[in-house]
Specification:
The complex is a heterodimer of chains A (about 250) and B (about 300).
Chain A (H helix, E strand, L loop, with lengths): L1 H23 L10 H12 L2 H34 L1 H14 L8 H8 L4 H24 L3 H9 L4 H38 L6 H10 L4 H29 L10
Helix pairs in contact in A: 2-10, 3-4, 3-6, 3-8, 3-9, 5-6, 6-8, 7-8, 8-9, 8-10, 9-10
Chain B lengths: L2 E12 L5 E12 L3 E5 L6 H8 L7 E6 L2 E2 L7 E4 L3 H4 L6 H11 L4 H14 L15 H14 L4 E5 L7 H17 L3 E6 L2 H7 L2 E5 L6 E6 L10 H4 L1 H16 L40 H8 L1
Parallel strand pairs in B: 3-8, 3-9, 6-7, 7-8
Antiparallel strand pairs in B: 1-2, 1-4, 4-5, 9-10
Helix pairs in contact in B: 3-4, 3-5, 4-5, 7-9
The chains are: A mainly alpha (about 250), B alpha/beta (about 300).
The structure holds adenosine-5'-diphosphate (ADP) and magnesium ion.
């Protein structure tokens, strides 16, 4: 409770400072609108279908990206982690693909996918899949031999050992990977939307607001929505992790 | 008494660049209901021997027979309490979940599982802790969970690898007496490995003394102290003192089959198990790293 109060105080102080700077005339309000104006604009926007559609577009793309990412990275991680031969075979490929910044792929994907959201979802997955994949591979390798041996001593079959020992062991690490993937996917989505506004979403809203009429209040309102969404995702997942994974302190490599 | 376990000419060599022969032809027979203690210096191959008996490791040569049948695969009515109990409990399962775990793969129905788990936990003095996670318990309590997990299976043969090595003296006495009680109640055949001579005499009907690696049987000592034993008076008795002396002497006078042999075994009181719990560099060790106290302990005696 006390921490919440402190955090709120910090935020309020920050807003007050922005308000003061905004109104002081240091910079024209046109460039740096004070929070009161931004919030007013935001309230108005939240009543507007077009804006809500943009928010929805980003949220949906995010959900789809993260879903695909999980469906690909978790099974692949379990497999690569369990079968060393396979891991050696694909390590070179992974090491080649991973450092390619997903932003560098934007032109390519834009050309291929035109205005459809498939392109940005692909790029978000591309960027987000790595932390999840590596966390999963790492976690499978970390399963204690003694645990597996104990299970063997109780005549637990190989398949059951995967299901009942390896997977539970991996869960906290996967969760941490998922958290990283979630914020990465959001960042990439909004970036792609800004660079390719025809795909819609908060990013394109921000881009359009800034380029056409130069509405900085709308730009900041859009940014605020993206920020709050990102914050809620992370807080929600951290909370879920604390609630459900009670046996391990937040596992995995951050 | 019918024979429960027959080990004949068991030999095991760990493969690898520095192939290591851990057991060098061990033979013995255990009758049903007997509590056999196995003592031997650290690193002599005691854990390996238990692993071979449980079929967790396939021995290089020799045979293990359970009730006359050659053992292939982990036998059904066998339970193991591992030396490294902290690493053998499932961290994501509650205490009760851990105890129920082996019952699941034996397809014991749910209600019966629960009942067995709770009653066994009560027997080892853990009632009230069933919903805790292992990490919330002290070492001694974790070890009780591991023991309860094995007992709940009502195994015909119970293998225990230095089960009391890393708990404090008081807890150790309690657990030893618990084991004797359990044995009196359900006549399980028990094979218990220890590096503590006193413990082997206090608990055993018989003590097998193993040599340094590669392990061979140096002596097979019958312990005729009767069924009723008491932590204080039994340990003071003349027979007890004589037996522990005999075993210590056997170990000391054993031919040294490894170079530097100033390994002082008698009345060893150190606490292994604690020794290398770092666990970090285990990843590159071969599977089944039974690397208990071996390395570090030897280091400390040299
Ligand atoms: N998985 C393994 N691979 C290779 N050597 C091993 C392995 N496990 C144990 N050893 C070696 O075998 C010997 C006997 O080990 P162990 O059976 O654990 O002894 P003890 O239980 O009597 O202390 C030791 O020298 C140990 O280093
Ligand atoms: Mg051992």
């Amino acid at each position: 409770m006390r921490n919440t109060a402190r955090a709120l105080t910090g935020i309020l102080a920050f807003l007050a400072l922005c308000e003061a700077v905004g109104r002081s005339g240091l910079a024209p309000q046109y460039y740096l609108p004070p929070p009161s104006l931004v919030l007013t604009e935001l309230t108005r926007l939240l009543g507007q279908g077009d804006f809500l559609l943009d928010v929805l577009a980003t949220v949906l793309s995010w959900v789809i990206s993260l879903g695909i990412c999980a469906l690909v990275a978790i099974p692949a991680g379990l497999l690569l982690g369990s079968v060393p031969l396979l891991r050696t075979a694909v390590t070179a490929l992974i090491e080649f693909l991973r450092p390619v910044p997903s932003v560098a792929l934007i032109p390519l994907v834009v050309v291929i996918s035109a205005g459809s959201p498939a392109g940005k979802i692909f790029l978000a997955c591309y960027a987000a899949v790595w932390p999840l994949l590596f966390n999963t591979i790492y976690a499978v390798g970390q399963v204690d031999e003694q645990l597996l041996e104990s299970a063997r001593a109780f005549r637990v079959s190989r398949a059951q050992r995967l299901l009942r020992i390896k997977i539970p062991h991996v869960v906290p690490f996967v969760f941490t990977g998922l958290r990283l993937a979630a914020s990465t996917a959001l960042i990439v989505l909004v970036s792609v939307e800004m660079l390719n506004p025809s795909t819609g979403g908060i990013g394109s809203f921000i881009y359009v607001a800034s380029s056409g009429a130069g509405r900085m209040d709308q730009v900041l309102a859009g940014t605020l929505v993206a920020g709050v969404f990102g914050y809620l995702i992370n807080a929600g997942m951290a909370g879920a992790q604390r609630r459900w994974i009670t046996w391990a302190p937040a596992g995995g490599t951050a | 008494m019918p024979s429960m376990l027959e080990v004949s000419e068991l030999t095991h060599t760990y493969p690898g660049q520095q192939a290591h022969t851990a057991i060098g032809g061990v033979s013995f027979e255990v009758t049903a209901g007997q509590l056999t203690c196995i003592v031997g210096p650290s690193g002599c191959g005691k854990s390996t021997l238990l692993r071979c008996i449980a079929s967790l490791v396939t021995p290089t040569a020799g045979q293990v027979r359970l009730r006359g049948q050659p053992v292939r695969g982990v036998p059904e009515d066998l339970a193991v309490v591992f030396q490294d109990y902290g690493r053998s409990l499932f961290p994501w399962m509650s205490v009760r979940g851990n105890v129920e775990f082996p019952l699941r793969s034996r397809s014991v129905p749910r209600a019966r599982r629960r009942e067995l788990a709770l009653s066994t936990l009560e027997r080892v003095g853990l009632s009230g802790a069933e919903d805790k996670y292992p990490w919330q318990l002290s070492g001694g309590m974790q070890q009780r969970v591991a023991i309860a997990r094995a007992l709940a299976c009502e195994p015909a043969l119970l293998l225990m690898d230095e089960p009391f090595a890393s708990v404090d003296a008081q807890t150790r006495f309690e657990l030893e007496d618990l084991l004797l009680r359990v044995r009196a109640e359900q006549d399980t055949t028990i094979l218990l490995v220890t590096h503590d001579i006193d413990e082997s005499v206090y608990l055993g009907d018989r003590v097998l003394v193993l040599s340094k690696s590669p392990a061979t049987v140096l002596a097979d000592v019958a312990v005729e102290l009767g069924q009723q034993r008491d932590q204080i008076s039994t340990r003071e008795s003349e027979l007890f003192v004589r037996l522990r002396g005999e075993i210590a002497r056997t170990l000391r006078n054993a031919p040294q089959n490894r170079g530097e042999g100033d390994h002082d075994e008698a009345g060893e009181d150190e606490e292994p198990g604690e020794v290398d719990s770092s666990g970090e560099d285990r990843a590159d060790e071969p599977a089944l790293a039974g690397s208990d106290s071996t390395g570090s302990e030897r280091g400390s005696t040299e």
